[in-house]
Design goal:
Elements: H1 3-25, H2 34-59, H3 64-94, H4 105-113, H5 117-155, H6 158-174, H7 179-198, E1 203-205, H8 206-224, E2 230-235, E3 241-244, H9 249-258, E4 268-275, E5 278-286, H10 296-310, E6 315-321, E7 325-333, E8 335-336
Parallel strand pairs: 2-4
Antiparallel strand pairs: 1-3, 3-8, 4-5, 5-7, 6-7
Helix pairs in contact: 2-3, 2-5, 3-4, 6-7, 7-8, 9-10
């Protein structure tokens, strides 16, 4: 549900409630009494504060101390709003308030705090209902996206398999002619095999993902020969960890596409570090200011979305751009193989 729709439904619900109160109080032909309006206004303030601030920020994140503090503030908002309307505004408007002049502060608070419990309770029920609806919609959306991805994956199997087999044939022809050409073909063939077979279930051994990156880098090295400078390092035990397939390559692709790869003094730096269950990928490159392709924004949005779907609450993506150097740091909590 979009925020604009939520606000519309929220105001509509309150409008219906006000209409109900008016009709219910007009039965005695006296119309709604002033204290009814003041109680309704104070309830609206407290209800809105709980619905849009307290429960989404504190209850959903399970920060109990802040939740308790938020509810106490909500209670104070109710008491304060009612006091302002009845004992200030009404005195000015109709000449008297709802309480006598000798009413103490403690009595006033004690007489009103229990009234404040109703907006707290009903706002919780309303928020829980909306939150449940949103989570169900998100689950349905995720299911549709996964189904679409599976269908797209199946649709792409025919032509890539043909290309993979063709590459093997070309390799057999190129081997007697040029070792360098044959090496490039076999590395490209290995990349395609990885994409076609090893990635079907979505998760694979981290070592295979690293091998894929190494082959990808070597193909670029063959292309640029002595004008290609990359510092690639792997640290830690990567043999018994699983990772989502092709989750790391977009960051390397982005560095090669938008960075400077022919500066020996500032090579592209790629580092994969695994400590226990935590993987850290760091990619930094000198920015190519002559690059006019701005498509990296779309790719970054896609990879962010994929990380949110596969590693919700288990990843962190940090990007630093000072105008000269572009640095990406990705942290992921991995699964054991």
């Amino acid at each position: 549900m979009k925020k604009s729709q939520l606000y519309i439904y929220y105001l509509l619900g309150w409008a219906l409630y006000v209409l109900y109160i008016c009709i219910n109080n007009w039965v005695d032909k006296l119309g709604p009494q002033p204290y009814v309006w003041s109680n309704m206004a104070a309830s609206f303030v407290e209800f809105t504060f709980c619905f849009f601030i307290v429960y989404p920020r504190f209850l959903k994140r399970k920060t109990i101390p802040l939740l308790i503090a938020g509810l106490l503030i909500a209670d104070a908002l109710f008491v304060g709003s009612r006091c302002l309307i009845e004992e200030v505004f009404y005195v000015w408007l109709i000449g008297h308030g709802n309480y006598t002049a000798d009413t103490t502060v403690l009595y006033y608070i004690g007489d009103n705090w229990w009234r404040a419990l109703q907006p707290i309770l009903f706002s919780f029920l309303a928020w829980a209902l909306v939150d449940t609806f949103k989570r169900e919609r998100e689950a349905e959306q995720l299911s549709r996206e996964k189904t679409q991805a599976e269908l797209l994956f199946l649709k792409t199997q025919i032509n890539p398999h043909f290309l993979y087999n063709t590459l093997n044939y070309i390799y057999s022809l190129a081997y007697p002619v040029s070792d360098k050409l044959a090496d490039a073909i076999i590395k490209l063939s290995q990349l395609m095999r990885y994409m076609l077979t090893d990635s079907v279930d979505g998760m694979l051994n981290l070592q295979k993902e690293v091998d894929y990156l190494e082959n990808y880098i070597e193909i670029y090295r063959l292309r640029f020969e002595d004008s290609f400078f990359v510092d690639f390092k792997v640290e830690g035990d990567i043999g018994n960890k699983n990772i989502a397939s092709l989750i790391l390559i977009p960051f390397v692709e982005n560095a090669f596409k938008h960075g400077v790869v022919n500066d020996a003094t500032r090579p592209v730096k790629i580092k994969i570090s695994v400590i226990k269950d935590r993987l850290t990928l760091t990619v930094s490159n000198k920015i190519n200011h002559n690059q006019k392709d701005n498509s990296s924004g779309i790719g970054l949005a896609n990879i962010r979305r994929r990380l949110e779907l596969i590693y919700p609450g288990r990843h962190e993506l940090l990007i630093a751009d000072n105008g000269e150097t572009y640095k990406t740091t990705l942290n992921i909590i991995l699964n054991n193989a």
